[in-house]
Amino acid sequence: MNVTAALKPQDALAAHLAADMEAVNALIRERMASRHAPRIPEVTAHLVEAGGKRLRPMLTLAAARLCGYQGGDHVKLAATVEFIHTATLLHDDVVDESTQRRGRPTANLLWDNKSSVLVGDYLFARSFQLMVETGSLRVLDILANASATIAEGEVLQLTAAQDLKTDEGIYLQVVRGKTAALFSAATEAGGVIAGAPEAEVKALFDYGDALGVAFQIADDLLDYGGSSAVIGKNTGDDFRERKVTLPVIKAVARASAEERTFWVRVIEKGDQRDGDLERALALLTSSGALEAARADAFAWAAKARAALSLLPDHPLRAILSDLADYVVSRLN
């Protein structure tokens, strides 16, 4: 019997890539060191060792191995991807004024905003050093573009977050910035470093992009009905923070004049009262917005699975397919 068959897909991925991930973790520890500023490894270790799933670096390793790569540069690229991810989390927590991540106090709470921002900058710089060491201009281009897209998505979210004119096109741009850009860069870079044919590199990009979008829509949906144990935040957090996510966009598009007045009050004006979350949940359900957003998440997961059909037959391909199912299985 296949031992990984009974595991969650990310655990099966971790089991399959255990030796590679050990090398990635050693490289991360080595490169987050700083002779001159001991606060850098302190802050970085708090986040890097917080028990995250390391999904993004595993996607890079899986893509490279799936395409038959035998060298060592995929380890550098996986560490690069984790550094970019960690840097964006440090910056995000400052922007969002967060106090908790993965059930632990955030770095900006334990230290301060300045430390979080500057350590994030340091990790971005380290990630570019690692990219350059692979000697691949194309990989540098992919990951540099992803870094720009992430920053662009964050700035777009600032203006779109509490604006009911935000439509599904803008939402998708924000999601690509927040989540999908790094997923697709992680998988695409793995294929490029392996010297895979263009059709396979494109398929890996498409897989990462669709997986990231499905992942984020599922997260946004769970905010209106998931337990905090599943998503690491409380039900209704997005509502309280007045975030215009896909369920709200769909509900507003279908709203009567009276319902629209409610959404303007609670989201745009921020005038939230007792019972408003319950009313919002009732409107999201009765309008069919939750069901429509759920269908979108499953469609993106199906798109991710379809992209894999162009890749070599390999045990990792099956695990990546299961992963696409898993990110939306939380919605069942």
From TrEMBL:
Q: Does the keyword Amino-acid biosynthesis apply?
A: no
Superkingdom of origin: Bacteria
Which PROSITE patterns does this entry report, sorted A to Z? POLYPRENYL_SYNTHASE_1 (PS00723), POLYPRENYL_SYNTHASE_2 (PS00444)
* Single GO BP term: isoprenoid biosynthetic process
Q: Name one GO molecular function term.
A: metal ion binding
The EC number(s) this enzyme carries: 2.5.1.90
Q: Which UniProt keywords apply?
A: Magnesium, Metal-binding, Transferase
Cofactor requirements of the protein: Mg(2+)
Please give the start and end residues of each transmembrane region.
Answer: none
* Catalysed transformations (reactions): 5 isopentenyl diphosphate + (2E,6E)-farnesyl diphosphate = all-trans-octaprenyl diphosphate + 5 diphosphate
What Gene3D superfamilies has UniProt attached to this entry?
Farnesyl Diphosphate Synthase (1.10.600.10)
Please explain the role this protein plays, according to its UniProt record: Supplies octaprenyl diphosphate, the precursor for the side chain of the isoprenoid quinones ubiquinone and menaquinone.
According to its UniProt record, which protein family does this protein belong to?
Belongs to the FPP/GGPP synthase family.
Task: Write down what this protein is called.
Answer: Octaprenyl diphosphate synthase
| The organism of origin for this protein | Stagnihabitans tardus
